[in-house]
Amino acid sequence: MSKSSLRLANLFSITLIVVLAGVLRFSHLDLSPIGTSQSFLLRVAAELVNKGKWPLAAGQNAAGVTIPPLIEYLLEVSLLVRREILTAVHFQALLSLLAVLLLYLYGRALFGRQVALVAAFLLAVHPWAVYSGRVIAPEHAGLFWGVIAVGSLLMLVRYGRFRWHLLLAVVALTALTQLYFRLPVILLAVVTLLFLVVLAGRGKETASARWWLVAIGAALFLYLPYWRFERTTGYANLRALWAGWTGETAVTDGAVFTHLWQLADGSSLFRQFPAWETAVWPWFWLGSLLAALFAVGWLVALLPAVWQWRQKYGVARRAKVTAVLALWVLLGVLAFLHHAPPLTIADLLFLLPAICLLVALAIPPLTTSPVHQRKTAVAVVGLAIVLVSSGWLAHGNWAGLQAQDAGDLSWGPTVREVTTAVAASRAHLASYPDCELIILGPGNQQSTSPWGVMAEFVYPTTVRFVEQGRGFIASSRCSLYFVAGEDAFAAQWLTQHGQALSDERNFEPAPGRFYYVPGQEAAVAAGQTAWRNGLYLQSVAVPATVAAGERLQVTYSWQVLLDPLSGSQFQFFNHLLDENGEIVAQEDGPGIPTTFWQPGDTLFTHFYLQLPADLPSGNYTLVVGLYTWPDLQRIRLRHSLETAAPLATVTIP
Prior knowledge:
Layout: H1 3-26, H2 36-51, H3 70-81, H4 85-111, H5 113-125, H6 127-134, H7 138-159, H8 164-180, H9 183-202, H10 209-233, H11 236-246, E1 251-252, H12 255-265, H13 268-271, H14 274-279, H15 285-310, H16 317-334, E2 338-339, H17 352-361, H18 373-405, H19 415-431, E3 436-441, H20 454-457, E4 463-467, E5 471-474, E6 479-484, H21 488-497, E7 499-500, E8 512-517, E9 535-541, E10 551-560, E11 570-577, E12 583-589, E13 602-610, E14 618-628, E15 644-652
Parallel strand pairs: 3-4, 3-6
Antiparallel strand pairs: 1-2, 5-13, 6-8, 7-8, 9-10, 10-13, 11-12, 11-14, 14-15
Helix pairs in contact: 1-4, 1-5, 1-6, 2-3, 3-4, 4-5, 4-6, 4-7, 5-17, 5-18, 6-7, 7-8, 7-16, 8-9, 8-10, 12-15, 15-16, 15-17, 15-18
């Protein structure tokens, strides 16, 4: 075959791979989940567009440490183009698609066309790569930067050109530390940078001081916002990062090897969701074959350099490159032998491009030379395994999309549902421009509700949140209510006092409805059941008799007369006392967060006290009160030095 024909075939192949990768990442993208973490990230990113507020930090990682804001800046790029949720998800998919193309370009420059095509094909259909391109998360963006980090590192080893690849490698390593913000990843980045310093000192073509200064300056610049944030917190997150790695909760085990095998397998993602697992052809052994090829590829990459070094022949340049690739994966794994829990497969996602390269290196070059017939046979078998396994993985990805579309596979609200809710909210608010929006659904804060992102996408409308089943706000001003779930108490009140809007929308898995309610004039509070923070108790509903072992539901209605001081947070305590004044059951909580209290509002709160199964028969007293959070200072009653008000007697038969 002529060179021009080879180039044409190569171009055709990579085009098909990129198209396949795009189909798997962009098809039905409106079915991508918007959970609490996705909602939080999108809301913070949208604050820059709406308010010009630059985020200095993002959300928390799995270890509970607040991470640097790089993921927010990446999302802001898309939101500046178009202020829509789907645009941000498209941008995440685009990064994943670019990772496939970049891996091909790096692989071709380093190892040739065959390795490049096989590695790109694997990354195009790999379930974890596809999933990372469809779901917004800091770790998922690590796939894109992982390609640049390992690709530029190997280019420096292969060609020794310490210019743009030095800058790309340093920036990519810095990005990985920000997106994961775990000490094992930081240690891997530091070791890699030290290796680059040694490599630059021993190489024939070294980088000028200017390129090193530019690279280090770019890394420091990326960390500047987070450094400012940490100064305001007294470096609490840096201390928590260190404490999580050195403290009693830290774990030393070999779980990382299991996760690495599952990542190389690919089909492990299907097994995490029963509906997805049953929708896929049951050929999971094909994923195990891919993982085995990865193990073979790791040995093939490392052993030639070891053998040449022991024979003192001098290590060939290609052998050095493959050895560095194998060692980089090994160091990434060893760094996680000691870690702060939890450890998930997503924590290793940045290694997936290197895994794909190692699988491709396990297959000998395909040649028509009769001298290498045995290698050719091995290459044909290896390529057949990759093609069949990758085809099955592509089928698994598509089966998952079909299961989502049919409603059999769900992770909570989807982009389609949240986008529809935003569009409906905007339309209703245009009809009632003076109203606020109150959302009843999971979570009682913007940061804890999957619907919290709506606050920034209906800006500048005031948005308040109430956790369904935990309470309700009867606002003193006109309000639009979005009920994103089943709440019998709220539905009854809204039916009595409001108007269900005509273009009712249904959401999966729970129905969502919009109501318009004019401002409610609260009754004038009277009596002694009032606290000095301006909260009056209007009524309490509690069953007179309840059996031991059951859950006692208490519903209060409160009137807010004073605007809480800025920054103040109050919690309710609900105690069931025996005749000796001892607590036999209790539940504390915010009910409705203090940030959403407004003078003139009536608040309804529900609390649930789990009674012990062995609770003796008799009469018990229900008392309620408030305290500040987090300093736990009780609030006194308005006309008394007491802090708790006895409200009702509950009989246990």
